[in-house]
Structure formats: C-alpha cells, structure tokens
Amino acid sequence: MAAPDVEVSRDALQFGLKDKKVWEDRHKAALHHSAFIRAARSIDGVLLRSSTPIPGAAKALTYLHNNNIPFILLTNGGGKHESARVAELTDKLGVPLSEENFVQSHTPFKQLVEGSETIEALKDKTILVTGGDGERCRKVAEMYGFKNVIIPGDILMANPTIWPFSQVFTDYYQKIHKPLPRSVNLADPAKSLKIDAIFVFNDPRDWALDSQIILDLLLSKKGILGTYSDKNGDTSLPNDGWQQDDQPKLYFSNPDLFWAASYHMPRLGQGGFQASLQGVWDATTNGAVLERTVIGKPYPATYRYAENLLNTYRTHLLGGKAPKQVGKLQRVFMVGDNPESDIRGANEYESAHGTIWTSCLVKTGVFRDGTQPKYVPKVIVNDVLEAVRWSLKQEGWSGNIA
C-alpha cells in the first residue's frame, strides 16, 4: 500500500468537458471526454459568505450539474463529518452533492486509520483531537475509524490545574468531556495517559488550553502526559534534542491564516493558531524546528488527493468507463478566494497525470479588490458564476448560463 497522501499544506469544485460538438449530447459527452475541467472553489468566500449563498453560486453549480459536467468541492474548512456538511450545502445551494465529490481539510486523515507500509496505523492508538465546536471533531474522528479519541476538555476536567485559566469554561467542558482511558499518574508514568498522535482537526476554540496541552506533549517523554524528556535541549542530538524522544506526531489540517466570515474583514483561522503555537515553541526551545505535518491547500498532497477523487468521481459519472475510452483529465480550473492557498496551490501543483491546473481568483472572499496578490492567478473575476463562464469559454463551450 502506498503511503497516505498527508503532508504539510479552504474549498473547491471540479468539472469537465471536451468540445462543442461532443457536448451537444450530454450523455455522449460524458462518455467521450478528452479534456476535463476541474474547478476548485472556496466554500466560505466563493460559494457562501458565512452561511449565506453568494449570488450566482447556486446557478453556477446547477448549470454544471444539469450539463453533466463533473465537479468536486475542496475546502480547507471542516469541523463536521462530510455527510453532515454535504447535507447542509445541498440544502443551502439546492444542488445535489455527495461525499463522492466533497473533500474537507481533515478528510485525508482517514488514511492514517489503517496506515500503510511506511506509516503506523493509528486505529487502535490513543489520539488527541483539538478544534471545532464541543466534541464534534471527536465524533468525526471516531466515524473515520479512530477508536480511542480524547479532546483537551477530557484532560482539563480530570486535571483542572493543567491550565487553571480555563476553569471559567467549566460548564462548557462539563457537557462534552469523557473519562480518560488512563489518569495522569506521576508516581508511575508507565501507567499514565499516553498520547500517540495530535490532530488539529479544525480551528481551536480555547487556544490557551489547547496550546498548553500540545506543548506539554511535545516536551514529554514518549507522549506520556506530565513527563518531561531529558533529551530536550541536548545539543548532541538532532534539533538539539527537541522532539527526539518518541513524542506524538503533530498534524494540522489547514494552514489558512485568515478566512472570510460574516464580519466585514477576514478573521483568523487555524493558521493563526498554528502561528501562535509556533511562537510559544520558539520561545520555549530557543528556536528549534517544530516538526509537524500540515495538510490542506496550498500543499501538493491535498491537490493530489483532490485530483484522485475527481478522477474516481469522473469514472463513476461516466458509467465506469476506462480512461482510455474517454481520454484523460486534461485541465483543472481552481476557483478560489485566497491567493495564499487556492491560487498558490494551483500554480505550484504538478500533476503526475499531466493534468494542467488553471487558477481563477474571485473577489467575494479573502482577496481585496485593488490589491496585488502575491500569487498571481490566470484570471481575476467578480464571482464564481463569472469564473465558470470564463472557464467554459476557455474550453470552447458554446452554451450560456442563463
């Protein structure tokens, strides 16, 4: 089995076509593609503004759906199971969606349940999951197949002094916590709570508590909470001994510093929490490298995962026809609102299948009109509807979106 596509890295849509004559018959077109379009769109900032559909978004998706043009949504958001998010989006946008064409930031974490020849399976290990409302992310992880999932609130309620300033949130944590599988046993660390991996599934709500617990684990001996590795600061070891004592691996699902919320200015996202933790780590270790794995746009693993999903979904849409019968996926249009993630990722991604990725930036989200984006898209348009029209025109599509 190949290693899971999880490495350092908010939303997306994909669709495809060949030429005007072939597409006159939608079913025939679906069976004879030689050039596909994939558009990757941000949900918050491209399809929705907070929870309200952006004008034209539903029309764009409906047109793609009605014309049998495959698409997927790829988002750096999360915090809910894919099935719940798909149902929510289907209701808001009025377009049939499924888990087959939807990827959230933490979706690739599923691959770590069973692991691979090179990566240890975490199915039966004890993992810490942070972020999201209440214990939603715990439940998502359990639905993925992780059997032993704890959240920071579990640790706080069992050990209130671990971060005394979170006691003002006792009522909140009282409703969501569960008993720990093992206590923090300083007298006998071998019997103490041991964490095998740390996952930031979604934007943390209690930055201070989560930061403290994550830091404690990164400084621990073999992930045993309440211990401190004697290798920390040892200059004879790689990275001066930091994270050299079998501490739990740290995974982030989303690098976005900002995201488009209902407020008139972008708000800090999971990337802000990551930067904050990085600052605390730097001050604690005198600048040692913080070893971590981050998935999500703009990093290649997320684009590779999305491209593979699109090809699978395309095959399903084409009735199971082999690629040689319909031609390979030739072009993907990435439509996003964030130059730092959506546009950068599309510009830098190199497809193993030779698929060309074309970036389209919309003005309905993070990007501020009148500014020069650091990562330059192929085109800047007003909204997702205009992006779809432009993309279809590039492929010689003669139809009009009314």
Question: In words, what does this structure look like?
Answer:
The protein is an alpha/beta fold. It folds into two domains: 22-105 and 299-394, Rossmann fold; 108-294, Rossmann fold. Helices cover 33% and strands 12% of the residues. It contains 14 helices and 15 strands. The protein has helices spanning 26-31, 43-47, 57-66, 82-93, 111-114, 136-144, 152-158, 170-176, 207-218, 270-285, 300-317, 323-326, 339-348, 384-394, and strands spanning 39-40, 48-49, 52-53, 73-74, 102-103, 126-130, 148-150, 197-200, 249-252, 258-259, 267-268, 293-294, 331-336, 356-362, 379-381. It has a five-stranded parallel sheet, with helices on both faces. The chain has a four-stranded parallel sheet with strand order 1-13-14-15. Strand 6 (126-130), helix 6 (136-144) and strand 7 form a beta-alpha-beta unit. Helix 7 (152-158) crosses helix 8. The longest helix is centred in the last third of the chain and has 18 residues, at 300-317. The protein is elongated. The protein starts with 25 loop residues before the first helix and ends in an 8-residue tail after the last helix. The relative contact order is 0.18. The model is unreliable at 1-10 and 17-41 (pLDDT under 50).
